[in-house]
Write a structure and sequence with these properties.
This protein is an alpha+beta fold. It folds into 2 domains: 66 residues, 2-Layer Sandwich (Gyrase A, domain 2); 123 residues, Cyclophilin (Beta Barrel), CATH 2.40.100. It contains 4 helices and 13 strands. It has a 7-stranded mixed sheet. Strands 1-2-4-3 form a 4-stranded antiparallel sheet, with helices on one face. A two-stranded antiparallel ribbon has the order 8-11. Keywords: ATP-binding, Hydrolase, Nucleotide-binding. GO terms for molecular function: ATP binding; hydrolase activity. This is Sensor histidine kinase inhibitor, KipI family.
């Protein structure tokens, strides 16, 4: 396991920085730290192992240097002060429940009990509008993606793969293992914050 903190920082063009860290949780924490610092930039975008600081104000290099120093000053850690916790009701009837139960060596009901006991954190959004990569699945419960992805996964499908959990906001192809489904809308382009599960949001699932 890598030590917490920034692994490396490099400039991406004249007005952007890319900071590399050791985990998705650290990326989310660094992004929260930078937003709270008052850094003047167009956007701060966490990803799986990095944070992009885009549109740093100023073009003479002074502000970029200050931004680099700010990133380097981050003390590390995985704690993120979440704006809110979202509880998503789920019908656990997914086609891969028995496969996950077999991988975990437990019953289907125990899969549901384990999954609903967890608190996830939205690390970053990607793949499709409103699709949040949710961190918090214990290493021993991680499962591989399907060898042959499905051509269509219904909107609202709750799924896991590798270290991630996620809910498909719209129907799309996908290779994650499906645990169930929800009727909750995850993406509203007319809202002030279109993504229900914006980075930093804590997420819990409740069985129906």
């Amino acid at each position: 396991m890598s030590e917490p903190g920034v692994v490396g920082v490099r400039r991406v063009g004249d007005r952007a920085l890319l900071a590399e860290v050791g985990s998705a949780e650290e990326a989310a924490a660094l992004a929260a730290f930078l937003r709270a610092s008052g850094l003047v930039a167009d956007d701060v975008v966490p990803a799986a192992r990095s944070v992009l600081v885009d549109g740093v104000d100023g073009s003479d290099g002074v502000d970029m240097a200050a931004a680099e120093r700010l990133v380097a000053s981050w003390p590390g850690g995985r704690s993120v002060a979440a704006a809110r916790t979202v509880v998503i009701p789920v019908t656990y009837d997914g086609p891969d429940l028995e496969l996950v139960a077999s991988r975990w060596g437990v019953s289907v009901s125990e899969v549901v009990a384990r999954h609903t006991s967890l608190t996830f954190t939205s690390a970053f959004c990607g793949f499709a509008p409103g699709f949040a990569y949710l961190a918090g699945l214990p290493r021993e419960w991680q499962v591989p993606r399907l060898a042959d992805p499905r051509p269509r996964v219904p909107a609202g499908s709750l799924a896991i793969a590798g270290e991630w959990c996620g809910v498909y906001p719209t129907a799309s192809p996908g290779g994650w293992l499906l645990l169930g489904c929800t009727a909750v809308s995850l993406w509203d382009p007319a809202a002030a914050e279109p993504a229900l599960l914006a980075p930093g949001t804590r997420v819990r699932f409740a069985g129906l």
